[in-house]
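Reply to thread "Modeling small-molecule complexes from scratch"

Following up on the discussion above, here's a worked example others can learn from. I took a protein sequence and the SMILES for flavin mononucleotide and predicted the complex. Inputs first:
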Amino acid sequence: MLRCALMSPSAKRTCPWEFIVVRDETKLRALSGCKTYGSKMFDTAMAGIVIALDPTLCDNTWMADGAIAAEHILLAAAEQGIGACWCHIYEREESEAMVKELCAIPADKVVLCAIALGYPDEEHRNYELDQLKYEKIHNETYNSHNSR
Ligand SMILES: Cc1cc2nc3c(=O)[nH]c(=O)nc-3n(C[C@H](O)[C@H](O)[C@H](O)COP(=O)(O)O)c2cc1C
């Protein structure tokens, strides 16, 4: 999973990310309280990966680079039968301050998200192929819709 993260693409291969692996139970439970909503998966998560980035390493692509790395982790986890969920931190000032303190992340880094990892206790509702929003796909111009 972490190898996948380290191999994910970034603009000009700046690799602006740092991955903080959290296994300590006290820290994981603290992550659960980093937001009032949307962080409760850390109540039972077995591990977490906090993604912090250095925005000075690239002009304006750090967030895309971090998001792609996060997605690499999510896909690698799924392939290994591990449940993973993105907990959004960026621009949640209090949450970011809390996560930074918890993981001793330097002030000049930006925390994008924390990925919770564990064994899922529920089945995720997958998309149905025939119910995808095919109208989101356009042919050549925005106002021309794709026919299936
Ligand atoms: C950018 C982004 C931010 C997200 N933030 C949160 C979050 O803070 N808390 C949470 O429980 N899930 C969060 N998620 C997970 C989504 O809510 C959703 O569970 C995930 O996309 C999988 O569900 P789906 O297959 O129905 O899209 C986030 C996902 C993305 C892509």
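What I'd highlight from this example: Residues 2-122 form a domain with the NADH Oxidase fold (CATH 3.40.109.10). The chain has a mean pLDDT of 95. Questions welcome below.
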